Amino acid sequence: MTLIDKIAWIQVDDGAILSTRSVGRDVYYLPGGKREPGESDLETLVREIREELSVTIVAGSAVHVGTFEAQAHAHPAGTVVRMTCYTADFHGELRADNEIEEVARLTYADRDRVSPVDQMIFDELFRAGRLRADAR
Asked: What is the rounded distance in angstroms from the CA atom of residue 119 to the CA atom of residue 110?
């Protein structure tokens, strides 16, 4: 088994979750990314969100939501992504940066438009009443 270690930001507003689509990709992913050698979860979260969305995460506000594992999208069978998720406050204006082509707010109705691990996270947030069912 190959493991991809990722950190993700859960940012839900009015029942819709912030998601991103990278250049050349056909599905949406929660913002975040892979840990650099020696980085903590929060260092990774702050760096990745700044790189992807041009905002500053308030590290002291970060709260661990959960850790999820699933087959990695667009990788060979047996490649598992482990997504460690945090909520956190931020400063700045959200905008796509670097490899991010699109920023979107998705609801549970968009579940089929995200990666397998994100689908698990959508399920959890929906069960918890944090994601709304309709696309509105």
From this structure: 9
Residue 60: inside a domain, yes or no? yes
Q: Compute the distance between CA of residue 49 and CA of residue 3 in angstroms, rounded to an integer.
A: 22
Domain holding 50, by residue range, is: 2-127
Calculated CA dihedral for residues 62, 68, 69, 73, nearest 10 degrees: -70
| Centroid of chain to Cα 70 | 14
In whole angstroms, what is the distance from residue 36 CA to residue 77 CA?
A: 24
Q: What is the mean pLDDT of each run of 10 residues along the chain (136 residues)?
A: 95 96 93 95 97 96 97 91 97 93 96 96 97 84
In a domain, 92, yes or no: yes
For the entire predicted model, the pTM comes to 0.94
- Dihedral sign computed on CA atoms, order 10, 97, 69, 84: negative
Q: What is the pLDDT of residue 35?
A: 93
Can you list the alpha helix ranges (DSSP code H) found in the chain?
Answer: 41-53, 116-127
Cβ-Cβ contacts under 8 Å for 66 (sequence gap 6 or more): 85, 121, 124
